[in-house]
Structures
1.
Amino acid sequence: MGSAEVLASVDIVALRLNARGGLELLLGRRAQAPYEGQWALPGVLVNGRSADLNLDSAAERALHSKAKARPQYLEQVATVGNAVRDPRGWSLSTFYLALLGPDDELLDQDLRFVPVEEVLDERFPLPFDHAQLVAQSRERLAGKAVYTSLPLYLLPARFTVTEALAAFQASLGQAVQHTTLRGRLEKMKQAGWIVETGEKNYPKMGRPQNLLEHRPQPEQPFVFDRSVLS
Amino acid sequence: MGSAEVLASVDIVALRLNARGGLELLLGRRAQAPYEGQWALPGVLVNGRSADLNLDSAAERALHSKAKARPQYLEQVATVGNAVRDPRGWSLSTFYLALLGPDDELLDQDLRFVPVEEVLDERFPLPFDHAQLVAQSRERLAGKAVYTSLPLYLLPARFTVTEALAAFQASLGQAVQHTTLRGRLEKMKQAGWIVETGEKNYPKMGRPQNLLEHRPQPEQPFVFDRSVLS
DNA sequence: ATAATAGTGTCTGTGAGACATTATGTA
DNA sequence: TACATAATGTCTCACAGACACTATTAT
């Protein structure tokens, strides 16, 4: 039966929003060959010997065993498989999009964040086809940001409209009218997904900002019935 | 390296629209154990020895080696993996949604179509977790039918508005206003995705129907910027 | 003429887009 | 007071929903 089998892994495209409104990708230094010592997507092999109940828990294991923080959102994106992506032979990778809160600390020297754009334009090369996996996950995020509240999972539970604008802009790659976003947040309030805390945030300049609180329902983002764009 | 590997397959959820406006699922009789002789989703094992270039071509092989017809649309839905779905042990299945034209003939005694509802409500039980894969693929179709032209891939290239209504109703599980659908088809005309043939179809009763022709662009369905529902 | 079905027109409601206006803080 | 930024209001436009009305065939 051994030769009927194939090399399979789960890889994580974990994104967070940095203070300048850009998306950053979590990378880990590979501990084993191939590409030992290089920066790559965190991932684990899946096979009968690992204790994973299923693929989703393997994804959680991959993320938790490296970065300590749990993702605020985790979604399977797709699976790629071919003969050339891994020098060891025909292999499969099921990859997940993970959205992290902005403040997660890196406790580990073998972890770092890099701006996604640097990965996508090859300034920061990744081994295997990992840059392609990042690109597909990025597209998934952008696609869903058009008609769901997905970018809010890049924010802390309590957030301001300005922060939400930054999350949508980073996810979509383009600006959103703040009035449009306010309308959508209003809908989410009515549905109980967002509550007005009554508290305010006092930045150095300008009018104080209302603090909202995100109350996400189990797993799926809020779905709107229109596109934000044009 | 052998024990680092895992059993992986590609399975196909191929749907077509029958004359009564219902969705039917393509099944094949299993030639090998486990579940030899039972009706199940057509699928193939993927491993280094099969000549597939990649997962997508393995999916095409799975469909083409069984049913002769090529799908009008093929999309990867997801991958499931756990220790219990296959009696042989930890296994992966990457499954695809395929949309077929309505007239495909079955040349093979080991192939048949069954109504999807019978599979979803367990009246027609399937081995492994295949009913679950069908349910997820069905949801993908319904989800995309809300804001894309995906159901048109269930029709022949030349179709009428009435047929398009049936395809959307079957995909969504609920009726669509014909005026709404006409508006969407009009948009697709302007974008060059649909052309008016000028010919008409003459049913037994009633006013003749305009014949439209679907000119799908490479791979992705036409995307509208609103939901059809409420 | 009548039945049956296809196609068009009209009115309403919703929410995005753009932009102006008002509100509330700091220096 | 001046400035910076947040929040609200207004007007337009596109399109879905509902429903009425007109058009074109067969019997």
Note: The helical segments of chain A are 55-66, 116-120, 130-145, 161-172, 178-190.
2.
Amino acid sequence: MKVTPETQRIMMAIRAIPHGQVCAYGQIAARAGLPGRARLVARVLAESSDLNLPWHRVLRASGQIAFAQDSEMYAEQCRRLRAEGIEVKSGRVRMPKTDLDLDALLWAPK
DNA sequence: CTGATGACGGCGC
DNA sequence: TGCGCCGCCATCA
């Protein structure tokens, strides 16, 4: 895929998602300094497919898994999430009302 | 240049 | 809470 400084920051943001935590496309974009580029995040994931990215920790803002429930990718993402102790209820996970937990971890106050 | 598309979001009802 | 509609952005035919 085409690696621009933007896609770099996006991948960095995704790699920063802690084990057992999830994050929305939009949040990733925002954290990468690209507000409104949620769709760009989606493309980066789609095109980097087999990189060492925790792609399964990225979902829609609604907490819904982004794939069709009958797709293989959906099943795979489900497995991986549950493997990290995340409960997946009818295609969606409980998204934190605020992402302060994540911010706290990322901001790593010293 | 124009219109369609998609691992998306937000607002209204 | 759930849906639908519309807005956004980057590509592509």
Note: The beta strands of chain A are 23-24, 58-59, 88-89, 92-93.
3.
Amino acid sequence: MRKISESTVRRLSVYLGLLEEFARLGKATVSSDEMAQRGHTTPAQVRKDLSFFGSFGKRGLGYDVVELSDRLRDILGLGRTYRVTVIGAGKIGSALVQYREFGERGFHIVSVYDNDEAKVGRSWNGVEVRDVRQLESDLRTEPVDIAILAIPPHVAQQTMDLLVGIGVKAVLNFAPIRLSHPDEVTVQNVNMALELETLSYALRNS
Amino acid sequence: MRKISESTVRRLSVYLGLLEEFARLGKATVSSDEMAQRGHTTPAQVRKDLSFFGSFGKRGLGYDVVELSDRLRDILGLGRTYRVTVIGAGKIGSALVQYREFGERGFHIVSVYDNDEAKVGRSWNGVEVRDVRQLESDLRTEPVDIAILAIPPHVAQQTMDLLVGIGVKAVLNFAPIRLSHPDEVTVQNVNMALELETLSYALRNS
DNA sequence: TACTGTGAAGAACTTCACAGCA
DNA sequence: TGCTGTGAAGTTCTTCACAGTA
């Protein structure tokens, strides 16, 4: 398939959220115009994004809400559940373990790791915190689909390398550092300080 | 000044981080090539990004680490401190209040608000949790530069509207919903479920 | 008729390539 | 000589505009 841009994928995810809301409101059908307004984009963008994957609408009518939701879930790979591990039992790790939206979307946090003996063994939201030294052997016997890094920057790269060695193919990184990784591993970064800095830039130049 | 793209601003922020590391290592001078390697971009991109703001380098030599850091801090508006409020004293709010990088960058969290009586009055990392009903009068007497929304999606828009009314010009939104807002208000979104969904897409299509 | 699907045009962003300067 | 600064070329992303159809 033609390479799809990351912005398109992100918008698809937004569209799915909108469609689920339309479904809750009992709407059966929706136009690209309505989706664009609620999703802060343009109707042409909505149609173009969808057109990369097929023709899901009916001319003159719009899109069937349920059908398009199903197709988007399929495209995004959300028709299954994912096993997720959180590495780092600090404040951010803690917030993630309890983050509702993850479970609702099929992302199940199956383990949490930390190097702090004081935390190891405690139960967090039903998930036991394990010693990070067990990480490698654990993941080899019970693989996960996605690892979330919620650890300090100075240990992030070595942990990334470990995960790559184990064969993890998707990582969500909260450490404020760009990680080196092979092409076949997908990494998404969340850098909160960087978000504040773009706000700072906007405030200064407005 | 010519409109600068958001991707450029984000990279400037990354460059600044790199420069601070180079400074710690005692490096006096750095080339666009070195920055590109460490920042996972290209030398031409580095030079082009910087060129929008002036000529900071010396041909044949590179950039002075300290001087360029100073210029970037200035460009990004980081030569001052910012007053920040966190709205929502849940797990995410809690993580943010203790997030070191914010303070290091000059973003000072001066207050936390919640609507849960049980939380109001408690002290968090030296910041007292206040009743959200005080938010409006508090911010009118003691304005903040940035508000961080760490609240459930169904109350996010009304809170956004309140903030706009009070005159807040920059918002970092953690609620998984696109907020409507006037153009003069800058909003950055952090949507963690959406990040996992882009990983899901990548896993499915690899 | 009302809306989709899509080539083609346009805009934005990135990379190239080289003149110019320390 | 070595690396910057920058127009120009190339690429990617967005918007336009309209033919096509339920």
Note: Chain B has a mean pLDDT of 97.
4.
Amino acid sequence: MQISVLFQAPSRVSNPTLFEQKLSDLHKCTNLNQLKQIQALIYRANLHEDAFVAPKLIASFSLCRQIALAVQVFDQIQEPNVQLYNTLIRAHIQNSQPSQALAAFFEMRNRGVWPDNFTYPFVLKACSGQDSLRLVQMIHTHVEKYGFGSDIFVPNSLIDSYSKCGSMGIQAARKLFMVMVERDLVSWNSMVGGLVKAGELREARQLFDEMPERDTVSWNTILGGYVKAAEMDSAFELFQKMPERNVVSWSTMVSGYCKVGDMAMARMLFDKMSTKNLVAWTIIISGYAEKGLENDAISLYNKMEEAGLKIDDAPIISILAACAESGLLGLGNRVQSSMERNRYKCSTHVSNALVDMYAKCGRFNRALSVFNGMEKRDLVSWNAIIQGSAMHGHEEETLQLFSRMKQEGFVPDKVTFVGVLCACTHAGFVEEGIHYFQTMERDYGIVPQIEHYGCMIDLFARDGCLTEAFRLVHTMPLEPNAIIWGSQNPSGASSIELDGIQKWKSNSIGSTLENTAEKALAAALPSSLCAAMNFPRKVKKGILWSHSGASALDGIRMTLFSQQRAMVKDSPL
DNA sequence: CTAGGGTTAG
């Protein structure tokens, strides 16, 4: 940026030609203050509707994560053209607002502005979430109708987007790939990537072998397939055969060994990496954290800081998530204190991760204070604190938080209801539980999932209403899982399991599972406290727990985490 | 004369 010239000689600003020259790098400006100053000059020079200046201004606001300002610039323009809409759509995607991006696309169509071949790759990127297959199909139809399929970027994007739409999508992607007249490296890579994502590893490998040429992306994609399937021997073989390896190749291998629990191998490869980026560090640290190896994780975290890499949200969030999963309060504290030391500004996402981490590590009060200190909260924040509160046995508080959340205009989702139902189950609020369970579908259109049924069944079972519990098990439109059968009542504690297992055997509901009884009992945590709550995995695995009050929670966790093994309490057998 | 696009690892 050579904007300084502009400020030193403000008189020249009136010269639009020079001004444009100075603005040629505007879209790369990432300094918000500077950007705002330039914006003022642009408006003064009346250039804000200039076809070359406006998109740059939008792009730079988008880069500075100021989507609202980007939209503001856009709204000032009387008759936006295709290019400007493309820029706006891309801005929404960059700021992770895919639905806004789609909205901009539809608005554009309504205002009679025709999309071009640049529009589709952007819009396709915005197609994710529910019903995405239909969206992608719709866009595919557009593309065919208006003949943009001749630009290789468009079908390539379609293949990628279709690949993200599940089993039906991969069918469509295959079909498109087959009929494409011209295929480039990216088409092949996207198709292989799609097959890998769909779990069609053999087919992916076959396609990989058929490729006319391969680049590092191709190799990394198929390597990722083996890693995903935990086939580390094949992955290693491939890794050795690769003509060129980059950070991604190494990181993929490291994450694979972390996944299968071979930390020695993971560490060896990590140490051999010549250039380690943030992703690489995050993978190995999270790997140690997920294994519960807190000291290794912390010492690597320190080394990462010493390496002087500039940290951002994504690694913090994934490390905190690993802490939450394994109950590593020490590492969680370490991450937070380093953020404080570096005056790192916590985004909503990072704060959410902190709330979740503290709650799952048994520090509900700290979770609450992070939550209360947040500038902006989203649905995830509320869900995290509601779950945390329910998990710690603060039933009344959970329900209060729930109504506060609604008062503040948030619409609960299925996760929220898991938390709310759990609180009811734990407190023995049968009437309230039934009420919320009904509300969920009737008022919010949320179809109950296995976790919700789990809460209700547990609610009935704990209240001694075994008939009611069983009725629900048999009438619910879902297959009962081990956790459902593990629901307990406080008095007999074992009646439902034993009965359930007998039923299970006689009905062969669980015929796909071996050692049904053991599995059911091994997972026999009250669903209210575990299944739905994303309890740390270690707790999930082995603990048998009767009707313990929440006060027992910390004690049990401490035992669990210190001994690194499951604790058996009040086992029904 | 000037902008803007796709694939892989967290």
Note: Residues 326 and 538 of chain A are 7 Å apart (CA to CA).
